TrEMBL record:
Documented EC number(s): 1.3.5.3
Listed Gene3D superfamilies: 3.40.50.360
Species the sequence originates in: Amycolatopsis lexingtonensis
Name listed for the protein in its UniProt record: Menaquinone-dependent protoporphyrinogen oxidase
Alphabetized InterPro entries for the sequence: Flavodoxin_dom, Flavoprotein-like_sf
Top-level EC class as recorded in UniProt: oxidoreductase
Length: 146
């Protein structure tokens, strides 16, 4: 199972969150007997969603909004993202001004949107990654049984 963890970051902390998510997600898939291939990429380096089975998209938040590269990624790949299981995460304070991220979650039919303060939230980040991995593993096992 091939998973893309696409991330937009200003200073690297959001990428660290993405890497922790990827590790725990991959571990959950492995534990369930599903061979994982989890790739963490900067959103600007993604040219296609072809071959991916799911996407986790994250962005740091600046002035209450996702970074432009993350929003542009979601817009550019919106058709493909609608056909894949998608999860979103934000790093930083999200308030009522972050309506665009909530709207994006609705548009992409994202399974979940989580907000993390930073790498201090590691236990929460890992738990969420494991949760995503368990969901994907269950879907993969169910799909191979039919």
């Amino acid at each position: 199972m091939r998973i893309l963890v696409a991330v937009a970051t200003r200073h690297g902390a959001t990428r660290e969150i993405a890497e922790h998510l990827a590790t725990s997600l991959g571990s959950a898939l492995t534990d369930a007997g599903v061979a994982p291939e989890v790739e963490v990429r900067d959103v600007g380096l993604v040219s296609s969603l072809e071959g991916f089975d799911a996407v986790v998209l994250g962005s740091s938040v600046h002035r209450g909004q996702w970074l432009d590269p993350a929003r542009k990624f979601a817009e550019s790949f919106s058709d493909g993202l609608r056909w894949l299981p998608v999860w979103l995460f934000s790093r930083g304070p999200v308030d009522e001004r972050d309506e665009p991220a909530r709207e994006l979650a609705r548009q992409l039919a994202a399974r979940d949107h989580r907000v993390f303060d930073g790498t201090a939230d590691r236990p929460l980040i890992r738990a969420w990654g494991h949760e995503i991995g368990a969901i994907l593993a269950a879907a993969a096992v169910a799909g191979s049984a039919s």
